[in-house]
Amino acid sequence: MSRVRMPVMAGWFAGDGDDFRLVGTRCTTCGSVFFPRENDLCRNPGCGGRDLAEVSLSGRGRIWSYTDTRYRPPSPYVTNPELPWEPCALVAVELEAERIVVLGQAVPGVTVADLAVGMEVEVVPGVLSEDAETTWTTWHWRPTGVAV
Ligand SMILES: [Zn+2]
Questions:
Q1: Average pLDDT over the chain, rounded to an integer
Q2: Whole-number Å distance between alpha carbons of 34 and 118
């Protein structure tokens, strides 16, 4: 039986190949971009706009900070408790055009020893967890200098 592929957060990303991208929203009044997406009210305290349009985020950014995870995050983080926790690198990426920082895991196989502040990374489709029925999909950050 094949697993169903399900995004771990609906509406946060789209595409599954070269067209993969993070999806946020932009306030039509002040231009502020939000990820995770804000749908109802601009969070800019000086704005108050209520019209937010869906927008694809830049596919590349630069590492603002990073760390590694040594323990299994608590719920609602999706993991398969029957499998051992695999440490991974967690990356905060600055998107210059949007003026925001987006968190995410580095691609499997990339550790904190491979990362540096200021390094360019690109967003790629990834898998967060799998169980018997479902493959939970997410986004990963991959250094642009690393071969696929
Ligand atoms: Zn606004």
A1: 92
A2: 22
